[in-house]
Amino acid sequence: MAAAAASSASLIDSIDLLDEDEQPVTTKAVIGDVSAERREVWSTRLASPDDLVPTDGLVAVKCTGGRGPLEHAVRIRDGSATPLLLECKVSYEELPPAALVEYQFADGGGDDGKWHLSMVCLEYLLAFRAGKFADWEKRLLQPTCKAEFRRMVAIGPVYNVFDHHMFPSAEEDKSRFEVTDDNGRKVILPRPVAALRIWDVEKQAYEDVDPTLDGAPAVGPERETYWANMIEKLKENFPEETEECLAAAAN
Questions:
Q1: pTM for the complete prediction?
Q2: pLDDT tens for residues 196-234?
Q3: Do the Cβ atoms of 121 and 88 come closer than 8 Å?
Q4: What is the rounded distance in angstroms from the CA atom of residue 91 to the CA atom of residue 55?
Q5: Distance (Å, rounded) from C-alpha 240 to C-alpha 251?
Q6: Is 58 exposed, middle or buried (CB count within 10 Å of its CB: 0-12, 13-18, 19+)?
Q7: End-to-end C-alpha distance for the chain, whole angstroms
Q8: Phi, psi angles (nearest 5°) of residue 76
Q9: Which of 35, 108, 110, 210 has the fewest beta carbons under 10 Å from its own?
Q10: Contact present, 105 and 160 (Cβ < 8 Å)
């Protein structure tokens, strides 16, 4: 065991690890094997045998880069070491898995309560979160078709961050958040996350990330009032469709 650990450390010391700005890190410190729990969370984005297989070693390495500490995940396979990098779909940066936000759904889908690795890093998530509540309101008040409107009303108010690119659903759940518009085109509906978290390199533990959209009403009576007022506005704009949605929800 000690010999294997020493061998892995030697391999890791021999490779270049880069920071977020693609500059060599200034320090490397082997933490140990990445836990089975974290490997499982990362598995959907590291599903190819070219990325990771069960027999591979996976070692966490604490590094210092130009923006501060970061944690690399280094794959050990057949006597060689390779850092695993994944793309942030917003910044297009190649980042270690630990730099990406993890997410959960809780809406009755088959993946409820299971953590997944997202497609976005924390910095860009926080920037992205700023305008999404207004986007959701606009879609609800200006739907592209009746099917979209009915499903959005059925889903209810969306106060947490959503994006089908950043937070993809499992294949078996995708159809629950899709409709076909009047022109036969597929429309993707908002599926808000229930929880977010990020790995804290210094603490070696997860930190919660607030999933609430900027501009959304506060938890409690304020949200109840907001949604009641929104329903009244929808009744004015789409009286027949709104009444049908409310009747269907009541049954």
A1: 0.91
A2: 999 999 999 999 999 999 999 999 999 999 999 999 999
A3: yes
A4: 32
A5: 17
A6: buried
A7: 62
A8: -110, 120
A9: 108
A10: no
**pLDDT digits 0-9 by tens, 151-198:** 999 899 999 999 999 999 998 999 999 999 888 889 999 999 999 999
Residue with tokens 């020493």: 6
More confident residue, 96 or 2: 96
DSSP string computed for the chain: -HHHHHHHHHHHHTS--B-TTS-B-SEEEEEEEPPHHHHHHHTTTS-STTT--TTSEEEEEEEEETTEEEEEEEEEETTEEEE--EE-TTT--EE-GGGEEEEE--SS-TTTT--EEEEEEHHHHHHHTTSHHHHHHHHHHS-SSHHHHHHHHHH----B---TTTSPPPHHHHGGGEEE-TTS-EEEPP---SEEEEEETTTTEEEEE--BPTTPPPTTHHHHHHHHHHHHHHHHHSHHHHHHHHHHHH-
What are φ and ψ of residue 37, in 5° steps?
A: -60, -45
Written as six digits, the tokens of 165 are: 């690119």
User: Is the separation of the CB atoms in 129 and 167 below 8 Å?
Assistant: no
The amino acid at residue 61 is V
Give the Cα-Cα-Cα angle 189, 194, 198 (nearest 5 degrees): 115
